[in-house]
Amino acid sequence: MKTKNMASTASKWLTFSLLGAMHWVAQASEAASAVAAASAAVATTAVEENPYGLSALWAQGDFVAKGTLLILVLMSMGSWYVIITKLAEQAKLNKQAAAAKKTFWTASTVELGKDTLAAGSAFRYIAEKGLEGASKHTGLLGAVDFNEWVTMSLQRAIGNVQSRMQDGLAVLATVGSTAPFVGLFGTVWGIYHALVKIGMSGQASIDKVAGPVGEALIMTAIGLAVAVPAVLGYNWLVRRNKAVMEEVNAFGSDLHAVLLGQAKK
Predict the structure, then answer these.
(1) Segments of the chain assigned E as strands
(2) Tens of pLDDT along 13-25?
């Protein structure tokens, strides 16, 4: 009987211990959930209550700050437009060079070879100018050596093609060299106004200084973000232009030799 009582007591004690442990675990879980929720709420509040950033820069900036930001945006749009259009023009000229190698030199005469090229092809334009120069070697122009006259005609045509390929590169050079200074101007203007507001309020705590100054520095970052692609794009396009113009110059040299050969015949 005594053994039965002791077993019953032990069983009850074990039951109460298990219940207590389960209750403690449940309380700990609720506390952890509450802490996590509080942390998330604090983080969300901190994100929502951040008064500084690009939106704040636009909302709180005056007409000078907004105008500077718009200028940087226009510079970026213009530089990317030039990069994309020049890449398309260079790819088109490469296709024209391949077509000229395939069809022009297999023709029996320059006139027939010219007709095999597309109407807007730069190589057809050079061939037309070469033929025009060879046919106009009369009158006062006849006093000029035929070799020199044809050379000048082809060089003018090649120069026009090269000038057309370089259109827009000056925009990239201008943006790459001036965008950092435009951004720096916006930063100096923003820091000036931030310091004026701090001086008028009479408070120089870290939250009053770091926020407006950091907000003004966004202008410098935007200026660098605009300038770097423009500089890289300019160097890349100049290198690609050089490779394309080598094809054009080679075509002009070969055409010059063919025109001289036809004139001798």
Answers:
(1) none
(2) 445 454 454 554 4
